[in-house]
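Dear support,

Our group has been running a series of protein-ligand predictions, and this particular one with S-adenosylmethionine is the one our PI (initials K.S.) wants archived with full inputs and outputs. We had some confusion internally about which version of the output was final, so please treat the block below as the authoritative record. The input we submitted was:
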Amino acid sequence: MPNIKDIINEREIHNILEETQKPFSGKILEILNKSLKKKGLTLEEVGYLLHTQDPRLIEKMFKVASKIKREIYGERLVFFAPLYVSSFCVNDCEYCGFHRRNPTPRKKLTLEEVRQQVIILENMGHKRLLLEFGEHPIENPIDYVVDVIKTIYNTKSGRGEIRRVNVNIAATTVENYRKLKAAGIGTYQLFQETYHRKTYKKMHNGPKADYKRQLFAHDRAFEGGIDDVGLGVLFGLYDYKFEVLCLVSHAQYLDKKFGVGPHTFSVPRWQPAETVNWIQPPYTVSEDELLKIIAILRMAVPYTGMIISTRERPEIRAKAFEIGISQTSAASRTSPGGYGTKKELAQFSLSDHRTMDEVLKSILKQELLPSFCTACYRLGRTGQKFMSLAKPGNIQNFCRPNAILTFKEYLEDYASEQVKVLGLKIINKFLKQISDDNIRKETQIRLERIENGERDLYF
Ligand code: SAM
Ligand code: SF4
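Confirmed final output from the archive:
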């Protein structure tokens, strides 16, 4: 087993935080320039950016991050929906509404209930789901997780189908990761919550209290054949500067060891939850700080996707889409069965309560292109294969047409009149920007095929 220090060297990170406390503007400008090369940043450079307070320099950071985002991800924003499957949990995480001390009865979806939730999500236009489970070896064993995944892939409603299932379950064994891979999952996400060991100990009780089990989970997932993994911390538990350096350090470790960095970073901030008696988390992260974090991660690890959820207010989400976010959820629920009418225990509360239609309207007004694409994963463009296309910028040749085609499907099958009008304008705008003549012409042909009823056409 590798050593904790291979991933997180706490002493080194504290030293960097000490030494980078007083950044001068020349240094920051030099780092911003370097980041434009899209080769990433050192931990020390990230330290300087984290300590920057000058609003003019922060504004510059946003501009640079936004440029990098545009160059790598273009105008696209990929949509997914979380699906809470079970709130049974043996852990006692201080911050979470599913912790075992909460006496509210728990809910675990039957496979028939999973099917019903999936039909609702497909009828909203979703093609990608992120499954969420509490940790419970008896209620939520791996075979149940696998059955849920199979049920989802087999559920089709009208023209709807789920084409990629990502999973967020507790750290587990190589053997179980193999089973998830065999069931056809996309990304395996697991958040360290906090990389700070003392805080980690304070926050956890139960099997999750094992810091090493959590930290090396992604290594085991790779060993089990999963090459798309997602990292994250729960902002609010400890100093965000320390956490961001650790996230970057963890990403660099994975890149070095497996030749491919994390597929995504998630940047959740703590939200109020039933029976968690916090008015504020121990280390509150403001909205402005969250935006700074997103911009810094975009510059530090440019080829890793970044996810923002409906934990955040619409205004903050809109700004985050500009400066670094590549994937987002909309109209989410955080309880098992939450997309129906029954009220069950929710994991935490949300700040964006808009419908899918409202979210789409607002991102189209921002001139962004919604994408429901799942092509890479289905064509085996994952892990190293994905990175070898992404790094020289070649992935753009596929992504823009695929976004256009999957959004066109959405407009045909699910959109309101207003979204359809706005959406067609955006499609036309970006269709013209496909630089390869053959791909542009073929995209145009496929748009007509979609109008004529064909589905699931991708490059
Ligand atoms: N139970 C698994 C685990 O803990 O790894 C699966 C994921 S859990 C359902 C999803 C994530 O929700 C956790 O990793 C945690 O970061 C986040 N979370 C928990 N409580 C939260 C809260 N009160 N506000 C915001 N996010 C929270
Ligand atoms: Fe359980 Fe996950 Fe919540 Fe912890 S964060 S109590 S492991 S559901």
